[in-house]
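Supplementary notes for students who missed Thursday's class. We covered one full example, reproduced here. Read the sequence, then the structure, then the short commentary at the end.
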Amino acid sequence: MDSFEGINEFVVVAESHGFSAAAKQLGCSTSHVSRQISRLEERVGVALFARSTRMVTLTEAGQAYYQHCKDLVVGLQQANEQITSQQTQLSGTLRVSAAGAFAENYVAPALMEFCKAHPNLSVEMNFNTRMVNFIEDGTDFAIRYGRLNDSGLVARKLVDRPMAAAASQGYIEQFGLPTHPEQLKHHSCIIANNDHWLFEKDGAPLNQVRVQGRWRSNSSSAVIKACEEGLGIVYLPKSSYNGALSGGRLVPVLEDYWGSGTSSWIVYQNRRFLPLRVRLAIDFLVAHFSDWSE
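Structure (token representation):
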């Protein structure tokens, strides 16, 4: 069995291109990973990696060895997961990257429900809009909104999120109520993700309207608060208002022109094998939001 020692570390280093990244993914020290790789190279009698100050790459022999070893590791992981799934006792840490009001108000509570159902599972939810490096950050999946770039990642749709425009009653009394999206060019608008707003009429898209205003923020809660304070008109997914519209704190604007919006997604690394806690969490969220509506 000693011949299998270090195989798992070898595969993770090969896929993450670094000892530190592999150690973070495995939850151990960099020195442990380095020792395991060195011992493995001694046993097989060949250098598996070419090391530099910046990164670690497979040698020609290492590449051939990796092609065989990765199937062994996946097979062992799947065998372990099959046993674990029969017991349905999830453990370890689920690491999620998220951003926006939808993730805070809806996804986080859903994951809390999932966490309560699995007492041995821990969840770390990081709210950050930056791009995720799944390997280096140790992130299992991310919640993202809008159009997705073709990045080789896997994306599963959670929900469609239609848009809604609103303003405070005070703003309308002072500056008037716009009756067509083009009139927004003469209004103060509160900008969240972008300053080009897309409206629709009877399901058909209109020309984008470029807006400007005195307040811009990538926090939807700050945008809503600025709108409630009378700083301008806002245009966001309807679910982002979190009761401000239904509670009467904000007034609907241009309701006949609200767009269908885009979608929120679960995005994760395109791997042949996902840990059971990740697969079940993703499946849980997809099922949880399958009949969700604004």
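Commentary. The longest strand covers residues 154-161. The radius of gyration is 25 Å. If anything here is unclear, bring it to office hours.
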